[in-house]
Amino acid sequence: MGSYWMQYLDLSANMFSGNPPNLVQAPNLISLNISHNRFYGSLILSTSLSSLSGFDVACNSLVGSLPSWSNSYSLKFVNVSCGNLFSGSVPPFSSLSYNYLTTLDLSDQALTGTLSSILGQVLSEGSSGIGMTALLVGGNYFSGIIPNFLTWPQLERFNVSGNNLSGTIATVGSLPSNLWSIDVSNNNVVAGSIPIPYCSSGAAPQLQHYLLGGDAHSFTGSLPTTLSTTFPNLARFSLSGSFLTTMPYLWLAGSAAWKSLTTLSLRKCEFSGTFPTPLASTQITWLDFSRNQLNGTLPADLPSYAPLLVTLNFGENGFTGQLPANWSNLAHLEHLDAHSCLLNGTIPAALSATLQTLILYNNSFVSTTSLSNVSADSNHPTESLNWWSSLMNLRQLDISANKLTTLPLVTNTNFSKLSILNMSDNRITSTLPTSWGTSLSNISALNVSRNYFFGGVPEAWGEKLALLRVFDASSNNLNSSQASLLLSLRWNVQVLRLQHNNFTGVLNSILVLSPALTDVDISYNQLTGYLPLQLLSSAGSLNYLQLQGNAFEGDLPRLWGQGNLSSLKLLNLSLNSLSGPIPVSWGTFLQRGNLSTDLCNNNICGPVPKQLRSFQTVVGGWFHRCGGAPKKRHRMLLLHKRSHQHSHFLQALQDTHGSVNDTLHSAQCLH
């Protein structure tokens, strides 16, 4: 499709699908609007678009590069947001286009470059002749400094959030009279004092969004007590930095406080004090006081003055006492994060049924179970009157690093939507319930590590937990002989961590790792026998294999060096009883620069494969020759690096390539 004389093309708000129209033969386009369709693929446009004024491709599924508009002198409107994923650098705008450009929306793409090179000198440094009303480039990879946007007199919206920008916000000149939204949150390093632009009338009632927060931000200085009266109608406000002062209660409570707030984040400000109560605004839906130095108890009357709360985060503070039972009246609450405080006692018997995410790790919560209410099945002590039954909509639950001793009373109804469950680092003594194969049917990540579980992993889980991708049962007392079953093709997990248990027996000689596995750790158990010859024959996705600290014996399987192991990053077979030479077939894959291999503390002997004799990035070790050779020691090169441990369980869910849990031993391999 295309026409040399075509000037206007508007296909917006239909249900067209497939590739977008080919407009390579349409150099005279003035306006292109194909927004709100189902187009996918790349745009094909003319390289000469000197007359282009409007460009709207929003709300599709387009990818690839943006068209060149460097010669589009009268470009006014650009919108590529909503569903698309353009990548690469953004073509610079014409030096003359700042007279015309009013809207630039590149939100939530994968675009790179510096804003100054994209916008040009005039837009970056500011000028009274700029007609820009909306610059929306959040959610990309832009770097550089924040432009001097407060000098753009027509500006209404400014959003550069979620990039890699740095610097300060200049407050030269007065606040543009129509500017109602400023968002510089979550960038690289945004510093300085809290910017308060000059307002000719003393206040700027038009400003509704003022978002300055971000974990890398470092605002400092004194807190302006008049901030809530200078911007009295703020609906969304965020701030991060280092203030080392008390919580700014004047902003939040009292006659001069913000009364229209719906979103408030004072995360990582180093504020001291107590939980502010009551808040002047009853419209708040998002409240984040996390990573401060707040203390005291939590307000039981929170539902009375924040009845619309959807998200509440106050983790990493010094709050003490219990979670208030009255918080069950927060009828809209979906996300509650209270991790890493000093909370204790039992979790309330009822919590909001609307909860989807509950994060309580690293506190001192205890179970309610006493000897009189342990269930009839002594292998599964469960809570008799518990809060679990009310959480019908829960998707993520993290109760790790507490003092819990009993399992949740899980039924087919109360946890049917649960996707992520972490109960590691507690004191639970139990077998793993077979019933979870049915009641946790949607589970994708399950962590029960560092408890006192015993027995085996129920065989039914391998078939019924079809969505399970990350399973960590390390550092327990599991003691069955079912390791072969867990590693087999029937098991669909990607990350399997069973290290530091008491698994026994011999791996099935015909065992083949599931092709889905990316990270396997069954180190420090009591496994014996030979390593299965075909173990890695289907392991094309495997990144990490850790078998150290067992009692494997025999030769290194030569077939392991013949498979497709291009993704393998770590192979640890140390601290076993393996013997014989390194197979010649291993030479090629062992010399890969991105592979760490540890064979220390075995009885490996014999000549070095020739591919390794000149390898440089290694640690030396001594190995005996095989039988019949002189009793002379020969120097051998050994691939041996340290790996790093990811401490947080959710990292494995976000990157199923996983991480390495055990730091490799730094022994010098002397035998």
TrEMBL record:
Pfam families the record matches: LRR_1
PROSITE patterns: LRR (PS51450)
TM helices/strands, residue ranges: none
Protein name: GP46-like surface antigen, putative
Lineage summary: Eukaryota, Discoba, Euglenozoa, Kinetoplastea, Metakinetoplastina
